[in-house]
Design a protein that fits this description.
Chain lengths: 518, 295, 307
């Protein structure tokens, strides 16, 4: 053990010396610990942004979901929608000098689908299209078992970032500690739970065109300092020990942005936003009238005001703003109307004695759960509890650690729980509303809905797809099986001296085009 | 070991009083006991009279009144949900104080029974119990509590159970030792010869003799129980919102430390005062009840 | 002596064995599926979950999992962390130095302050300094460390930014956590040392030395303090354990890396192998510290060695 402790001690000593950044070096206050830096085996959404700076994907997704060339110069989709041919750039090399070509892409796909690879998010993103073949030195063909419309957008998520085949070969299970990509930054070091250091890739010259940046990144070195405690992260940022900070808590965002000293980067995390599925298999929300009463009883704007200082835009439909099919007009569906909520309860046969609702000797009792470590979920759940108590619900609250919370909700033991889901394609809805899915936490299915979800997945025409997802949102809201809460933003703040930080579609901070003023 | 030494007793004026009054009055001449009792009584009175002192409901949210600094309307300010902090601190005190008490009482009862059985039965059963006790004592307490609440699920009752489980081995070890000693005394043998069953012997001969050590132990552990129950609340595994409890209130406040100091300072002051009061009382009681420890 | 050492070592091994079994069982009683916990709310379709369960060996029976784990342990292999995807031994090696630094600094502070307060209180027995010192000791014992930590951050890192908020392992980062951790145990030390100095003062040879006309200072240094060393050693033994478990809270409050935080995170995310290894290590350190202290007794007091 002693020989192993030494490098860690040295790294720790180095860490305290590198506390302040020099010119062209950036310290980023990062909110969550990493499980790995291997895009294939990570199960954590917040590893994505770091990955997107080390790895490039075949395509780049702009913040407004335009699919642009990145490692692939161009692509064609066959008429039957089952074959995708990507023409690759010919001037790209990995950080370790390995050339990037069709064979490298094939190795990556084989690695993702490999029997011994503990693939997590990545495997799901390829869907039924996990077969790649080199049809030329710089041409790769993906074939799908069925039409899969989400593929192109999902190809742009950092979890499908291209890794050096030589590194895959060399490091095996340790690959996550030796990430080798083609991105604007190279991996330097990673001290678990403390920091991740990246340095500029001097050979980089293939940034996505829409970013308007030629050549290598302007920043020499980025240190992601992992500070899970939000209070400490804010302090670190305010005192100048970091120049960028992610996941700023609402109240601090409000005060810090009011000072005008910082650049605001509300990174839009696409998907289903923050929402609470309403359990339609559990008494009393198995009654649609009770579910509707909940929808009318919760005032999203006031909820955000209570839980997060009002800094987030509310959401009224499951698909977030900007995503294909997002329903602009959903806001009017369930206006805040506690009287209407009460009359719905009366209509459902509940009787109110001034303090509690009862029906057949049972009280109107619901169980709201939240992950105990996540301050925003806790706050949202408590605010929902407040709204429901207001109209006479007996609203119980239970905070659980993540594994227990997952278990309880998968088993259908909780009425409502704030959650999030991240995706770049509206097909993300299928995880929450198809039968037999782990995340069908509404515990509700509907044949028409199931059909529509499958149609949406296999429809390649944008206009027709949008219409399908419009219908899906209508069904979900009409049946009141999901309570949309707010948009999902990663409130990122940067010092005014730092410019050009952007993000790729889905919400992954990207520092390739950023620079620091002297 | 006590903070203040017992004052020289002058019982001349007490001669006319009943023996019980005498001993109570004598006990209160002990300065730390008196000070501790005063602190605890005042705090208890405050939390019991909470409805008279504040008109606010500790769970009532108000979107318009979040994060208000202390003022006449809200003497301790308001929290992130616009709830009145004074109401939360006062009502929360009820939970913290009762829970700490419940922890030591449950731990003491379970530990004493276990210790009695182990010490009286001896042999393989006693050995097995005591090795389990050693095992539990080798665990850092807060980690054991963390693991137990993780198994039972969060919540006040589960938190109380978890912390009393930590106290069980402490009591068991104390009582086991004392029981073994008393068990070998002639009067116990005499009782057995006269036909007393083991339960009867334990209840009428052994228990009364270990009782004073158990009580002394309880007073010293009450403060620790309060620390642990609030630590659990602070980690978020204790009471569930919106129920207030000092540790949980501190947890709410920690995120807004620099923006709303009142959310952290007031509940912390009350909690610290309570534990100081309990510890003072414990010191005093120990000196009064167990003269062998006094220096 | 040799048989005593062997006996104690055997007891530590037995303890480690018992703890490992207990922890193994407890972890599996905690509700929640570790495989689901790994995936969180991201793209967990049932096939991916089952594939992963198979790959991690979590589809095997509990007994066979335990046997596998023990077997690996005997070969010095703590296994692989599911959550952090690297060998558990590496995680421990990366986190241990920070915890060691924190614990050692806190132990040093705690004993030093305890000695100062305890000795002053004993020498000025029943005077204002005694009452003040013991009052301080009681207050320090009573103030919850998590609250004290928050107050120290508020005062010395925010209002007067002398120290770093994010507790790194540099000097500016270790001061506040170490002070927070130490202060909770100072009270106990001060009381313990006061009473041992008091009892040393009443011993016959001390009274004789005083009668011989030696100066107060000489008597104190040569006789009283030397006799109090033994209790101080006892205090160190007790506090190593207390401080180690205290790091759990302090590392969380100060966002410091360390074994405590590693353990809490691992428990909350059901990272079985990491929890098993860290608890085992903490228990062994705890028992080991007491063992070393016991071994030191005879060196300081030959009377014990002769027994």
């Amino acid at each position: 053990m002693t020989s192993r402790k030494l490098p860690a001690l040295l790294a720790a000593a180095g860490l305290c010396l590198s506390g302040t950044a020099h010119a062209n070096e950036l310290v980023v206050g990062w909110a969550e610990t990493n499980d790995t830096l291997n895009p294939v085996t990570t199960g954590k959404r917040n590893v994505g942004p770091i990955l997107s700076n080390i790895f490039d994907t075949l395509v780049w997704i702009s913040p407004d979901f335009e699919v642009e060339p990145l490692l692939a110069e161009s692509w064609t989709v066959s008429d039957d929608g089952l074959t995708y041919v990507f023409k690759l750039r010919e001037d790209v090399t990995f950080h370790d000098g390995t050339p990037f070509n069709a064979a490298a892409v094939v190795s990556n796909v084989e690695y993702i689908t490999g029997e011994n690879t503990q693939s997590k998010i990545s495997l799901g993103l390829l869907g039924p299209c996990a077969h790649a073949e080199a049809t030329g030195e710089y041409e790769v063909t993906f074939t799908c078992d069925e039409i899969y419309a989400p593929l192109l957008a999902q190809m742009g998520e950092p979890y499908l970032g291209m890794q050096s085949p030589a590194a895959i070969e060399e490091y095996g299970a340790e690959l996550g500690q030796h990430p080798v990509g083609t991105g604007p930054f190279k991996f330097v070091s990673w001290t678990p739970s403390q920091s991740i250091v990246l340095e500029k890739n001097p050979d980089y010259n293939w940034m996505a065109a829409s970013l308007g940046h030629d050549g290598p990144a302007a920043i020499d070195k980025i240190t992601f300092q992992i500070v899970p405690n939000p209070q400490s992260r804010v302090q670190q940022f305010q005192s100048g020990q970091s120049q960028v900070m992610q996941q700023t808590p609402g109240l601090y965002w409000k005060t810090l942005t009011a000072s005008g000293k910082y650049t605001e980067l509300p990174v839009e995390i696409s998907g289903l936003g923050i929402f609470a599925p309403i359990n339609a298999s559990l008494f009393p929300t198995d009654d649609i009238l009770v579910r509707k009463a909940i929808m009318y009883a919760v005032d999203q704007k006031a909820l955000i005001q209570l839980a997060e200082a009002g800094v987030y835009p509310p959401s009224y439909t499951p698909l977030s703003v900007g995503m294909l099919g997002h329903d602009e007009d959903a806001e009017g569906k369930y206006p805040y109307d506690p009287e209407k909520a009460k009359s719905l309860l009366t209509e459902a046969g509940w009787e109110f004695d001034g303090t509690t609702w009862t029906k057949d000797g049972k009280t109107l009792s619901v169980k709201i759960t939240a992950i105990s470590g996540k301050a925003h979920y806790m706050a949202q759940a408590q605010a929902i509890q407040g709204f429901l108590s207001e109209i006479g619900f007996d609203a119980q609250f239970e905070a659980l650690n993540a594994p227990a919370w997952l278990d309880l909700n998968i088993d259908g033991g909780s009425t409502l729980t704030p959650s999030q889901y991240i995706g770049v394609d509206p097909d993300a809805l299928h995880f929450w509303f198809l039968p037999d899915q782990y995340f069908n936490w509404s515990h509700w299915t509907n044949d028409e809905l199931t059909d529509l979800i499958y149609q949406g997945r296999s429809e390649l025409d944008h206009g027709k797809r949008a219409a399908i997802y419009q219908k899906i949102q209508d069904i979900l809201l009409d049946n009141a099986v999901i309570l949309p809460i707010r948009q999902n933003l990663d409130l990122t703040l940067a010092d005014k001296s730092v410019t050009g930080i952007t993000w790729s579609g889905g919400g992954f901070q990207y520092f390739g085009a950023a620079s620091i003023a002297e | 070991m006590a903070i203040a030494e017992t004052l020289p007793a002058d019982d001349s004026g007490l001669a006319a009083k009943t023996p019980l009054t005498v001993s109570v009055l004598r006990a209160f001449r002990h300065r730390s006991l008196a000070a501790g009792t005063l602190i605890c009584v005042v705090l208890a009175a405050l939390v019991i009279c909470a409805p008279l002192l504040t008109g606010f409901d500790p769970a009532k949210q108000s979107a318009m009144e979040t994060f208000q600094a202390p003022s006449l309307a809200h003497p301790m300010g308001t929290d992130a949900f616009g709830r009145d902090m004074m109401a939360r601190v006062l009502y929360g005190g009820r939970v913290t104080m009762l829970a700490s008490l419940a922890v030591v009482v449950m731990g003491a009862i379970a530990g004493t029974i276990l210790g009695l059985v182990a010490g009286y039965a001896g042999g393989a059963a006693g050995f097995a119990i005591m090795r389990l006790v050693d095992l539990l004592l080798a665990f850092p307490g807060i980690l054991l509590a963390l693991a137990i609440t993780a198994i039972l699920g969060p919540g006040l009752v589960n938190g109380i159970i978890a912390i009393s489980i930590i106290l069980v081995p402490v009591y068991a070890r104390l009582v086991e030792g004392a029981t073994r000693e008393i068990r070998s005394l002639p009067f116990v043998d005499a009782a057995i010869v006269l036909g007393a069953g083991p339960i009867r012997v334990m209840a009428t001969h052994i228990l009364p003799n270990v009782m004073s050590s158990v009580i002394v132990m309880t007073t010293t552990w009450l403060g620790v129980a309060a620390l642990w129950i609030t630590a659990l609340g602070f980690i978020g595994l204790g009471v569930q919102p919106p129920q207030p409890e000092w540790g949980a209130i501190l947890n709410d406040g920690q995120m807004f430390l620099t923006l709303a100091w009142w959310m952290t300072v007031f509940p912390g002051v009350f909690l610290s005062l309570f534990i100081i009061g309990v510890n003072l009382m414990g010191d005093g009681l120990r000196d009064v009840l167990d003269p062998t420890i006094a220096d | 002596m040799l048989s005593y050492v062997a006996g104690r070592l055997a007891a530590i091994v037995a303890l480690a064995f018992g703890i490992s079994g207990l922890v193994f069982l407890m972890l599996r009683l905690i509700p929640g599926d570790p495989v689901m916990a790994l995936l969180g709310t991201q793209a967990a379709n049932p096939e991916v979950v089952e594939r992963l369960r198979r790959q991690l060996g979590l589809d095997e029976s509990m007994a066979s999992q335990y046997v596998t784990w023990l077997g690996n342990l005997f070969r010095g292999d703590f296994g692989y962390s599911y959550g952090q995807q690297r060998p558990v031994s590496e995680l421990i090696a990366a986190n241990f130095p920070a915890t060691l630094q924190l614990t050692v600094c806190a132990l040093f502070l705690s004993v030093l302050l305890g000695l100062a307060i305890g000795i002053v209180a004993a020498l000025k027995r029943n005077r204002a300094a005694d009452t003040l010192g013991m009052g301080l000791a009681l207050a320090l014992m009573s103030i919850p460390s998590f609250w004290l930590g928050l107050l120290l951050i508020l005062l010395f890192a925010v209002t007067w930014p002398i120290f770093d908020v994010v507790g790194g392992t540099g000097f500016k980062g270790v001061v506040l956590p170490a002070v927070t951790l130490a202060l909770g145990t100072v009270g106990f030390n001060a009381r313990f040392i006061r009473s041992s100095v008091l009892s040393a003062q009443t011993q016959k040879h001390v009274i004789t030395a005083r009668a011989k006309g030696l100066s107060r200072a000489t008597v104190f240094l040569r006789h009283v303090l030397r006799n109090s060393l033994l209790p101080i050693l006892t205090v160190v033994g007790i506090q190593v354990g207390n401080l180690l478990s205290g790091t759990v809270v302090v590392e969380t409050v100060f966002s410091r890396p360390g074994l405590g935080r590693l353990l809490v995170d691992a428990i909350l995310s059901k990272d079985y192998l990491t929890v098993q290894a860290v608890v085992l290590i903490i228990a062994v350190i705890y028992a080991g510290a007491n063992f070393v202290v016991d071994l030191c007794y005879p060196l300081l007091d030959p009377r014990i060695a002769r027994r």
